[in-house]
Amino acid sequence: MSDKKSRKQEQLERFTADDRDKEMTTNHGTKLSEDEFSLKAGERGPTLMEDFHFREKITHFDHERIPERAVHARGYSAHGEFELYESLEQYTTADFLTDTSKKTPTFTRFSTVAGSKGSAELARDVRGFATKFYTEEGNFDLVGNNIPVFFIQDAIKFPDLVHALKPEPHNGIPQAASAHDTFWDFIANNQESAHMILWAMSPRSIPRSFRMMEGFGVNTFRLVNKEGKGHLVKFHWKPKLGVHSLVWDEAQKVNGKNPDFHRADLYEAIENGDFVEFELGLQIIDEGDEHSFDFDVLDPTKVWPEEEVPVKRVGKLTLNRNVDNVFAENEQVAFHPGHVVPGIDFSNDPLLQGRLFSYTDTQLTRLGGPNFHEIPINRPVCPFHNNQRDGMHRMTINRGQSSYHNNSLADNHPRTVPPEEGGFEHYQEKVEGEKVRARSESFKDHFSQAIMFWNSMSEHEKGHIKDAISFELGKCQQTAVREQVVDMLSNISGDLASYVADNLGLAAPQNQAENITKTSPALSMANTVQSPETRKIAVLLAEGFNGEEVQGVLDGIDKAGADAEIFSTKLGKIKADNGYTVEADHTFLTGDSVLFDAVYVVGGPDLSESYKMKAKYFTKEAYMHFKPVGATHDGKDWLEEAGMSGQPGVITSDDLESFGEDFIKAVAAHRFFDRELV
């Protein structure tokens, strides 16, 4: 803990040093002698129009807030780097995917979808996961989500989806929530959403951390090698720490206790030197096998089951630097799936095809014009030259007489570059057919993969989905909407539909789901990585605690890569029975169990009734959220009194060594859903 505190102090000193020895000027460089008072006609007189500094300062303030993103408004970002494990030259010419000697700078933004910029972060929602690779061939943007499928198959329906999801227009309610009539009416009447809605109602929609969720490119892209051969590809991000979530009651409380929970978690991890790691995985299909599956590989409402198309892990993304300025970087970054480099191209996925238009159009509005690529966070690291000129917020000062192609005045520069020298060439694919507004017959199966997803869930995940849908539909006002959704669910699982119907006081549905037994174990979070690294453990202590024992446990926690934070009745130093001291990080007033992954309860010899009451509540709440609980001495007695002892994930061994090992194993396991709720 001391090393991390000294690191924070160094960061503070560095930021303070950056502000030293600077002379205040206007935005145009005029030095200022005064910044406290506006220019007036007399001390009590009116402000004068000639006060250029006042006008500049106020005008800039008036325009500090740019229009927020229509979706993904609430987000947070970090810088990093990407390292390639092995060359992929048999699939692509993209330099950052073929040269293992390079480290490619990156910028990654995580986000919620539905809420405004000011909404809380623990909404039940899809999470955005977008990474900008600053390659030497130009920027490549991998713009995805933490769920591999989407609600719709064709981008023309995207405005309908978002209009249904956003607060209802007649009253502006609810914020950052899908638990209302218009959203579920959309789901029931656009049943291509059947697969996605199960993902959205699963535990993945309330992740424990940005650091503990998968990322997916969602759409089908194409890799092209130097011979011009194409392979269809889907992109994945696999988190080093595994995929973990919160429970719903916990998430709602976190929103009240710390609405910035996810961004704070990411920021603090990087500041503490616990750099965030994801592996880049590729699912690759030879174009000759495009039609050999029982689903259409271009359908964005379908996964490519990992058991049928394995994920090849090809490199590592490390997030190792926080933003210096949230507005300049996090808010002004502009992603676009059309930002590709030679060797990466597009498929005919109809959702992707629409995204290639909408992202540029959105950035033009949000960032004030066509020059958003010149904002520092969006600038490529390689040189860029073309004949585009002027427009709002132009920063490049172009020289020369000509700004057109072809020309003789500049010897036809900037010149185009042939493919063999690295110029981008679109994949040559034969396309023919009549102009129609239609959807492929192969896209019309809406339930087989929804059934596969349901079949693949653990019992806990199924219970979470059942309760989530029951909660959301319970917030809908229209009985007809509830009935339609239950009817749709009966095409997936009779058990699911009947459970939800019973909770809503509706008749059991009559439809019968298809008898599909296919599963994909990779879809279940029960099969994820379990690690204690960076887990936050609340340690409840009081004056006179057993110093030898606690010191041993804290050393074990630190060795396992977890973080212990001390709770007591007041801040400051707490002395043990052997003179060992620790510093309290929180009181029961400033911290809560929902902000931690586990609890270690110790207490002390002389506890007030107030301390006991608060500590017992703290521990019981963690227990009810299925978290690991360790206890010795007074804490052990409290657990026995409350009937928690002997339950899964409750560690109360008297042997110090075995207690420490067992407790760390429990912390790594994250949750104990088979625990009896007492």
Automatic annotation (TrEMBL):
Active-site residues per Swiss-Prot or TrEMBL entry: H72, N145
Annotated heme binding lies at: R69, R109, F158, R355, Y359, R366
For this record, an example GO cellular component is: cytosol
Q: Which SMART domains match?
A: Catalase
Q: What does this protein do?
A: Decomposes hydrogen peroxide into water and oxygen; serves to protect cells from the toxic effects of hydrogen peroxide.
- One GO process term, biological-process aspect: hydrogen peroxide catabolic process
Per the record, the covalent cross-link 3'-histidyl-3-tyrosine (His-Tyr) lies at H336-Y359
Q: What class of enzyme is it?
A: oxidoreductase
Which reaction does this enzyme catalyse, per its entry?
2 H2O2 = O2 + 2 H2O
InterPro entries recorded: Catalase (IPR018028), Catalase_AS (IPR024708), Catalase_clade2 (IPR024712), Catalase_clade2_helical (IPR043156), Catalase_core (IPR011614), Catalase_haem_BS (IPR002226), Catalase_immune_responsive (IPR010582), Catalase_large_C (IPR041399)
Q: Which organism is it from?
A: Salimicrobium jeotgali
Q: Where is this region: Disordered?
A: 1-34
Does Iron show up as a keyword for this record? yes
The entry's protein name is Catalase
Q: Which part of the chain is the Catalase core domain? A: 25-413
Q: Which cofactor does it need?
A: heme
The highest taxon in the source lineage is: Bacteria
Answer whether the UniProt record assigns the keyword Iron to this protein.
yes
- UniProt record similarity statement: Belongs to the catalase family. HPII subfamily.
- Gene Ontology MF: a single term: catalase activity
Which SUPFAM superfamilies does the record cross-reference, listed alphabetically? Class I glutamine amidotransferase-like, Heme-dependent catalase-like
Q: Which UniProt keywords apply?
A: Heme, Hydrogen peroxide, Iron, Metal-binding, Oxidoreductase, Peroxidase
